[in-house]
Amino acid sequence: MNGFYIILATCLVLLLGVVVFFVVIVVGVRKGDRRDLASPASTRIDAITRRVVGVGTRSDKESDG
Question: Quick check: 4 pLDDT over 60?
């Protein structure tokens, strides 16, 4: 029975982590709505959001290769 409680607690902690990650992404998207996507990311949350969503800036060096 103790194993069941450990698994249940672990699932709850993982679910909480997923919810927190989702909230961070949503906040980053909301703040990013008012910014130019061609400019570099100004905060770490903005950079994470751009990477997860798939929006990023490209430089000339990346397009050459």
Answer: yes
